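> Could you send the Phosphotransferase prediction when you get a chance?

Sure thing. Input:
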Amino acid sequence: MAALLRLLEDRGFTGAPRYLGQEGGADLLSFIPGTVPSRFQAWSDGQVRAAAVLLRAMHDATRGSGLAGRFEAVCHHDPGPNNVVFQDGVPAAFIDFAEAAPGDPLEDVAYLAWTWSISSTGTMPPARQAGQVRLIADAYGLASPQRQVLVDCVLERQARNVRFWAGFQARPATAPATAAQTAERIAWSRREHAHLFAHRRIFDEALARP
Ligand SMILES: Nc1ncnc2c1ncn2[C@@H]1O[C@H](COP(=O)(O)OP(=O)(O)OP(=O)(O)O)[C@@H](O)[C@H]1O
Ligand SMILES: [Mg+2]
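Output:
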């Protein structure tokens, strides 16, 4: 994480904390002023667009680096709204690079699309959600072959989320949440997967539109 934050700083990416060194065995990061949303909710087109642009800039700053290795870029792997600092209502920086690792940028785009714009309980109807996902693909500059599998990639991530939390049901002592929270996260991920699966044609069509 220290090497990644240094790389981002060296390459002029300002949407992440700076690594300031160690103090008492703990990593010291710069504080980014603003607000971090505590729960998932509906976002405006402008907010979603800014998040996608920020993600693209982060990926671009890691391309071809030693940290990316044989992968295309270094991915954040958890770029949900709860890991973004908003300034004046605009997504300005990612925080929480605990899961960052070399990877396929499409994974991050898919997770961002899910956590910012796709919801079974949101106030936005599926067509509006699909419109935002298209907006994310455009703002990110996602290439056509990736657009065709973006929905599959979101479904895969949602299914993986179920499996991730279900793993803790077998080993409750290792779980980072209570049994009730774990069960709730499994149920939520399944619900969101069912929602997207049921409406996937609307999302696929929005992504395919010229
Ligand atoms: N560099 C930073 N600048 C400003 N605020 C920060 C920074 N890093 C963390 N925070 C604050 O601390 C909170 C928790 O940080 P972080 O997301 O890294 O930890 P976490 O344990 O993963 O929490 P969560 O489970 O909520 O994601 C953030 O929601 C944010 O309010
Ligand atoms: Mg976090």
